[in-house]
Design brief:
Low-confidence stretches: 1-13, 204-208
Mean pLDDT: 83
Largest sheet: 4 strands, antiparallel
Radius of gyration: 17 Å
Number of strands: 22
Structural class: mainly beta
Number of helices: 1
Distance between the termini: 22 Å
Helix content: under 10%
Oligomer: single chain
Strand order of the largest sheet: 5-6-7-8
Shape: globular
Length: 215
């Protein structure tokens, strides 16, 4: 797996081999989500059904649990340093104890369903991408892009929303699916299906976000 180092460069941290194709411990059928917590525990999530398997830093199987909030699709996992796991499932963000799979709650957002991606920020908060047409994990209307960036604090409260972060703020194209990453300096990196470049947004105190297209 890989991580963003302090300078914001994506670097290879280590390489391990996890399981193979199939149904059982350490096996995957359609795994699309991966997260690593502060202890090095690895969480791998299946796209359909929400099964999450947990491994230690060497790849040894530890446990498994399921996102049991109704049928749907798991879009993304993120984990903080304390082993709390955040799951984007059916367009909502749920919070779990990574070791046991206990549901700890759901993040409230006035816009409702529509989350696509989530990452943990250096201060323990969250950055998430949201699109009003992404209901229940599926698009219901392609008439307009609403590719918003939503920032949460460590308590799960919304602190800032940047509307149309790629299509307007970053000067890109109308975006249907926005992906993101963050580094320890607070820089946010975004890309999408309709925006082949990588955009970096830099927070400068309380001032506006600067923007830069990296590629």
């Amino acid at each position: 797996y890989a991580a963003v180092d302090l300078s914001g460069i994506l670097v290879n941290v280590t390489q391990i081999l996890l399981g193979g194709f199939g149904n059982g411990r350490g096996l995957f059928e359609n795994a699309r989500s991966l997260a690593v917590d502060g202890a090095g525990n690895i969480y791998v999530g299946e796209y359909e059904g929400g099964l999450v398997q947990v491994f230690d830093e060497t790849g040894e199987y530890l446990a498994e649990w399921r996102i049991d909030v109704g049928g749907g699709f798991l879009k993304k996992l993120a984990a903080d340093k304390d082993g709390v796991v955040f799951a984007v499932f059916n367009g909502n963000i749920y919070k779990y104890d990574g070791a046991t799979g206990e549901l700890l709650g759901q993040l409230d957002y006035d816009g409702g369903q529509g989350f696509q991606d989530v990452v943990v920020t250096a201060d323990g908060g969250l950055a998430a991408t949201w699109n009003k047409d992404w209901q229940g994990g599926l698009f219901v209307n392609f008439s307009e892009s609403q590719d918003d960036l939503v920032m949460f604090d460590s308590e799960g409260n919304v602190t800032r929303v940047i509307p149309k972060v790629l299509s307007v703020e970053a000067g890109g194209y109308a975006e249907l699916e926005t992906r993101l990453a963050v580094d320890e300096a607070g820089n946010i990196y975004l890309t999408g299906l309709n925006n082949s470049g990588v955009f970096r947004l830099t927070a400068e105190g309380r001032g506006p976000f600067g923007r830069e297209r990296l590629a």
